[in-house]
């Protein structure tokens, strides 16, 4: 694995700036009542490995495989002591796989999130889409 998927923060030069809530009603959401584990990540890694058979073995090697939200959860723990969480962690060879330990209660909480909460999550995704670029901007 390398840094080619890293992005750069660059505020868009759009005038007027679009609302971060525009498009909320048309979004396509995952089914939040299902525990997806890290299967999607593992499938993506397997796909990359089979598609790039000529690539070096280290191109798809990783020390950790997890969604970035797992690191966020670890880092904000000192500031959110009321929020309980647990993770499933497995080491296979040299790679450590980390996923959320999703309980039925957590799934019920997700499906009951308010529209305001869903709108805020959408605006965060849209902000990231608008403000993150693949190449560093010319300054």
Describe this entry's structure for a reader.
- The protein is α+β, with helices and mostly antiparallel strands and 139 residues long.
- The protein is 34% helix and 13% strand.
- It contains four helices and five strands.
- The mean pLDDT is 83.
- The strands form two sheets. A three-stranded mixed beta sheet has the order 2-4-3, with no helix packed on it. It has a two-stranded antiparallel ribbon with strand order 1-5.
- The protein is globular, with a radius of gyration of 18 Å.
Q: Distance between termini?
A: 29 Å
Number of contiguous helices: 4
Describe the main β-sheet briefly. 3 strands, mixed
Helix content: 25-40%
| Beta content | 5-15%
Weakly predicted, low-confidence segments: none
Q: Which class best fits the helix and strand makeup?
A: alpha+beta
| Strand ordering within the main sheet | 2-4-3
User: What spatial form do the alpha-carbon principal axes imply?
Assistant: globular
Rg computed from alpha carbons, rounded to a whole number of angstroms: 18 Å
Q: Give the number of DSSP strands.
A: 5
Write the element-wise H/E pattern from the N-terminal end onward.
Answer: EHEHEEHHE
